[in-house]
Amino acid sequence: MALIEVKDIKKSYTTDEVTTPVLCGLSFKINTGEFVAIMGPSGSGKSTLLHILGFLDRPSTGTYHFDDKSMDEHSDIELAHVRNKKMGFVFQSFNLLPRTSVLDNVKLPLLYSSTKEAHWQELAEKAIESVRLTHRIHHESSQLSGGEKQRVAIARALVLSPSVIFADEPTGNLDSKSGGLIMEIITRLNNEEGHTIVLITHETYTAENAGRIITLKDGLIESDKPVATRRSASHFAK
Amino acid sequence: MTIKYSIKTAANGLRTNKSRAALTILGIVIGITSIILVMSVGQGATNLILSQIQGLGSKTIAILPGRSPSGPSDVAQLFSDSLKEKDLELIKRKENVPTLDKIMPVVFGSETASYGSETYRLTIFGATELMSTILNAVPQTGIFFIEDDVRGKSDVIVIGSTVKEKLFGTSDAIGERIKIKGKNFRVIGIFPKKGQVSFFNFDEMAVMPYTTAQDFILGIKYFNRLIAIAASDATVDRTVSDLTITLRNSHNITDPAKDDFSIQTPKDIANTLGTITSVLTILLTSIAAISLLVGGIGIMNIMLVSVTERTREIGLRKAVGATGSDIMKQFLIESVMLTGIGGIIGIILGAVFSFLISIAISNYLEVNWLFTFPYSAAALGISVAAGIGLVFGIYPARKASLKSPIEALRYE
């Protein structure tokens, strides 16, 4: 069943009356439980695509169905609710709240959810446990290493058990060892817990953890094919 | 997002920037402090004036010579010699003012008195023997003069405690003669030290029969005041109108606008002074309010900086599900908390300062100045402070809520 279905979406930005096309008509489907990597050189439109898929931005034209519902049917407030409940985000630069504990960072999405407060602690602890950071639970985010910060970000993305996790260059700011661990966690979330993953990267060896790679070039899909031999994250190396 | 977490989030936001928050609310603190101070001191002044007037007695009526000025171009001292012996005689007649209990003419002036080599400039107060009952002026040592002294223009004098100290030091003054304008006056009594009572400072005064003061010192034939006492509180108004009619007849006045005298009751004086203190309080409060306005602009400025600084945080919150109104709420609560705290500090400081001022005034001016905590001003202060946070917080908060999550996350 298709969780994500985009048809001929285009996106262009207009600044000072100059229109720059970024996405020039993309169509594809992503099924529940898939692990898809989106690759492409800088400026190929992969981040823009992820923003649209993650309901952070709307396409200029074309249709996008998420969970069988068109994005056009959602108001901005509903988009926020869908993001909160069904989507998790992991960013290249972690985006943790400074001077805030690991626990409170992970709890952040819960603040905006309809989940009862009584369950917050349990959910947050479970998410932190799944990224193996229980021993750091009361540390402030600034006391963590880069790899640990990204694990906190993953725990935050996981806390409400979303249908899909969008990861935008999650290993981009990390050394190969920490990056390897992050990919291991992401792969495990897909393999063992069945989370749908959409991963953006410009590194082939990272992309090869996925089951399918969509390659973009100049706002168009250059190729969309399954990975013949999936890389196991434990063999991750730069 | 529940209101509880909105408040928690806002409090966290403030905690991470403590010193900046403290400096930001300084304007609000100063504004609220000044408002509390002005209102508290204004209330104290009003109370003091009222107690001074009540010291005069509610049945006391003052008759002043001269027309009360009707405008800035009017000459206030017009007809300042209009109250004469003839008026006094007419008022004393029972058929003219039946509800009158007592009447006393008063004259005053300033003169230098000397004893031996000591000199002192004192207030000469000429009255009748009734003064000791009307103004409760009873000598501590010696006696007050009697009716015969008034009739016979005796050269007797009752002096205040400061006058006694300046001229005689510690030596005995009763029976001694002090010289004023070349004439000797025998000291027959000394007032106890009582400070300011009902607008008069008894300590710096010398009291003698008004006839003596008129002839030998002031050289006048008129009175500076007539002080009348009504028989009872209920007859004050009746007495005032009888006095008015009697004086108009005596002065052949038919048009009330041309009265060459004015009559004041303690109630009138209280009203006039009450108006003056309220106007002053309002004036000073509005000046203090300007500092609140400036403080509010400061709050807005800092909140705008804060919104820009926390662009990434806003983007992240939106990405994980915060709506625009969640973000707006967070920043609004933050600015209201900021100004609210400023308001509370201002109220505390204002109360402390007005308390200190009340102690200082009581001690240095030797008046009975009571500290009053202006509860209404405190309630007003806290609501104004919170209102400023709301008004000046709306623009930055709205700016924050409108930030697009991608723009915000991309912000470096």
Brief account:
By secondary structure, chain A is α/β, with parallel strands linked by helices. Chain A is 31% helix and 29% strand. Chain A contains 7 helices and 10 strands.
What does this 3D model show about the protein?
The complex is a heterodimer of chains A (238) and B (412). With 238 residues, chain A is an alpha/beta fold. Chain A has a domain at 2-95 and 165-235: P-loop containing nucleotide triphosphate hydrolases (Rossmann fold, 3-Layer(aba) Sandwich). Chain A contains seven helices and ten strands. Chain A has helices at residues 46-53, 76-86, 102-111, 120-130, 146-158, 176-191, 204-207; strands spanning 2-15, 18-31, 35-39, 61-66, 69-70, 87-90, 164-168, 196-200, 212-217, 220-226. In chain A, the strands form two sheets. Chain A has a six-stranded mixed beta sheet, with helices on both faces. A four-stranded antiparallel beta sheet of chain A has the order 2-1-4-5, with helices on one face. In chain A, helix 3 crosses helix 4, helix 4 (120-130) crosses helix 5 (146-158) and helix 5 (146-158) runs parallel beside helix 6 (176-191). The radius of gyration of chain A is 18 Å and the shape is globular. The model of chain A has no long low-confidence stretch (mean pLDDT 90). Chain B has 412 residues and is α+β, with helices and mostly antiparallel strands. Chain B is built from 14 helices and twelve strands. In chain B, strand 8 and strand 9 (200-201) form a beta hairpin. The longest helix of chain B has 44 residues, at 266-309. Chain B starts with a helix and ends with a helix. The mean pLDDT of chain B is 86. The A-B interface holds A 51, 54, 56-57, 76-77, 80-81, 83-85, 89, 91, 95, 97-100, 108-109, 111-113, 117, 156 and B 1-2, 5, 9, 12, 16, 312-313, 315-326, 404-406, 409.
